[in-house]
Amino acid sequence: MIGRLRKVLVKGPDEGLAEAAAWSEFGYNHPTDVEAAGREDEGLVKLLQDAAVGVYHGQEPQPQRLDSIFVFDPVLVTNARVIVGRMDKALRQGEESLLARALTRLGVSILHTLTGEATLERGDVLWLDPDTLIIARSYRTNDGGYKRSRQDRLTRSLDLKTESS
User: Fold this and answer.
1) What is the pTM of this model?
2) 42-55 per-position pLDDT tens digit
């Protein structure tokens, strides 16, 4: 959404060799330095707190899911509620339910959770303004995820056709 950040859910890197060893499966160019990532996470949390943002650490450890630190990806936040997407990449599937559980514990209302074959990832979504949500279709967000999100009528709907080269 568009506006001042008041609260944020973060997830630092999980300690353990399983995470550091999984880097090639996730498409990274080199192993993850878990200690450095932990220091960077602590620095980010301090910056957020210094800016008077409420910071919540709410997710369970997921040492086999290196990308689970990107809590932004599996959910679409609206002014009132959250839509829990469904990750397309097999290595990321399962993050959604743990994130939904953490959000529920924090009192965040969930509008719906994508199921079945529908996929929706936040990397394909952009709030242009408070009334305009852009959802791209890609390998991460398919027609099912796009159509299910449109059913909520959160915003006005425009279908734009593009041609790829």
Assistant:
1) 0.81
2) 999 999 999 999 99
Tokens of 98: 């743990």
Strand partners, 156: 132
Residue with tokens 């995470």, as numbered in its chain:
19
Domains in the chain and their CATH numbers? 7-151 (3.75.10.10)
- Residue 98 three-state SS: helix
Please give the sequence-ordered ranges of beta strands (E in DSSP) within the chain, or none if there are none: 7-10, 54-57, 75-77, 82-84, 110-113, 125-129, 132-135
**Dist. CA 61–CA 32, nearest whole Å:** 16
Q: Is 55 exposed, middle or buried (0-12, 13-18, 19+ CB in 10 A)?
A: middle
122-135 burial code (b ≥16 CB/10 A, e <16): bebbebeeeeebeb
pLDDT score for 165:
42
Query: Considering only CA atoms, which of 46, 59, 62, 49 is closest in space to residue 14?
Result: 62
